[in-house]
Design a protein that fits this description.
By secondary structure, this protein is mainly beta. It has one domain. The strands form three sheets. Strands 1, 3, 4, 6, 9 and 10 form a six-stranded mixed beta sheet that branches. Strands 2-5 form a two-stranded antiparallel sheet. A two-stranded antiparallel sheet has the order 7-8. The longest helix has 9 residues. The protein is elongated.
Length: 154
């Protein structure tokens, strides 16, 4: 995880192979994303998110994003959820479609779990109090890799 890519051979783009697996007693995976950042010729930073693997037979559209939500199995009253959606493991092969060998860039992988109860939902159930009205009852936890850097030769 993490590192520096060597200068790209002429006409080639970086390719990433990703395998993600849920924690043994954790929530299933909703999707795997690659986040690409780059500096344009004026030094301005940009960032783009690509969904590279999604669960439950959903599709990734041509713009690199899945527009369909995974769903939500959170039972707020019981502060529980079900792993009946998502996948315990997702794999992906992704090639940067917009790679410019003369442009500085970075990449990292982000894995998003299915919705689970937020800590305030667990606390409301445990202490027998009302759930706060100004916070969501569920969240989608995320895991990130270290960045992979690409720096062209001067």
């Amino acid at each position: 995880m993490g590192g520096d890519l060597p200068e790209a051979p002429k006409g080639k783009s970086p390719v990433f192979m990703v395998r993600s697996m849920r924690d043994f007693d954790g929530a299933n995976i909703d999707r795997v994303q690659i986040v690409k950042g780059w500096l344009d010729e004026s030094g301005k930073t940009h960032e783009r998110v690509f969904d590279v693997a999604v669960s439950d037979g959903r599709t990734i559209e041509e713009d690199g994003r899945c527009k369909t939500a995974v769903g939500n199995t959170v039972n707020v009253e019981q502060a529980s959820y079900s792993n009946s959606i998502g996948e315990p493991m997702l794999f992906a092969y992704w090639k940067d479609p917009d790679f410019d060998a003369q442009q500085r860039a970075f990449y990292y992988v982000r894995v998003i779990e299915i919705p689970t109860p937020r800590w305030t939902t667990y606390d409301a159930k445990f202490f027998g109090v009302e759930l706060p009205k100004d916070v969501p009852a569920s969240i989608q936890d995320r895991a990130y890799t270290s960045p992979i850097w690409y720096t062209p030769s001067p």
